[in-house]
Specification:
It is a single chain. By secondary structure, the protein is α+β, with helices and mostly antiparallel strands. The protein has four helices and 17 strands. The chain is globular and about 50 Å long.
Amino acid sequence: MSDLPDLHSATVDAIVDHAGRSTLPFQQANREEQHATAFWFNELVETSADGEVVRQYLVTAGEPTRVELAEFTLRPDLCTPAMSAEKLMLIDFAQGWTHLDDLGVAVMPTAGLHAHGARKGWRWAIDEITDGIAATEQDIVDLGDGPVAAYLLGHVADGDGTREQAVVVGEITRTGNGGIRWNGDLPQGCVGAPVFIGARLGGDGHQFKLVCVGVAVHADGQHAVVPFDRVRAALAAFHSDRSTNRSTNRSTDETALTVEPRRRWWWRRG
């Protein structure tokens, strides 16, 4: 279509502007292995006149989390006050993650990360993938049957240790089992990253909404995207199980936060 270049550039701009500080690169500590990308997500629990109650997580692909010692690379722009980039080492890393059914996705409550910043005298200055931008079941249906332009926001592992953030442009296609396939290769280090599309609105082709389709994972020898509607359903089932049986062997606590009502920013004009 004639407006595709404009939609492409506007979608990239929207991702960088509104989700650029949502991602964290990590890897197995002291080894050039298990490079991946995680991102901040807040799950909407309820909405009231007082605001929204959310649970905040890091989300990533499950397999790279199965190490005992890992390190995050902290970018200066994620911290207030700003500081030089540093490595955040985490012991018992694997025990901090909850694996969601058989999706290949893992989540970590973020209370420990906030506590670390407080001990060091800074706080996180991040963007989050919110329920408003995370794909619904209808968003997945609306992808249709053909390839759709998609954009992954991840941290490339190119061997120099910098883990630069990049927008990887590609295509996604729905599969017969209701899943989503990423067509082609992904740069090393980008597994676990969020994948976005610019979904058109209206008939003139000049309006769109930014949608985070899901999480990039390895599945059955190919690159796949776990849709966010499945992530939500798995989280709901997990919390339902926990409310039924409060005994748990998780090593991290989850905190529900109340946040003020805010303007919804993911609507953009091309």
